[in-house]
Design goal:
The chain has 74 residues and is mostly helical. It has two domains: 30 residues; 42 residues. It is 88% helix and 0% strand. The protein is built from two helices and no strands. The N and C termini lie far apart (76 Å). The model has no long low-confidence stretch (mean pLDDT 94).
């Protein structure tokens, strides 16, 4: 029983130490400013919509080509 309680105590102490280190490291992080965050978010959203549209067009072309090919073969 004593070994079990010691193991729990060690786990608790390691968790507390880990959280202290995390807090210390978060103070060293260089956080982006609001305009930088808005700008990079806009770039990501535009890129997502561009590539979604591109892949939709490519998928539509391939789908049409496959339908034509299967009709031609049957």
């Amino acid at each position: 029983m004593n070994r079990f309680l010691e193991k729990i105590k060690n786990t608790f102490n390691r968790t507390i130490e880990f959280l202290r280190e995390v807090r210390k490291e978060l103070n060293n992080v260089s956080w982006p400013s609001r305009p930088e965050l808005i700008g990079t978010t806009a770039v990501v959203l535009v890129s997502i919509f561009f590539f979604a549209a591109f892949l939709w067009v490519v998928d539509t072309i391939i789908h049409s080509g496959m339908n034509y090919l299967f009709k031609w073969l049957s």
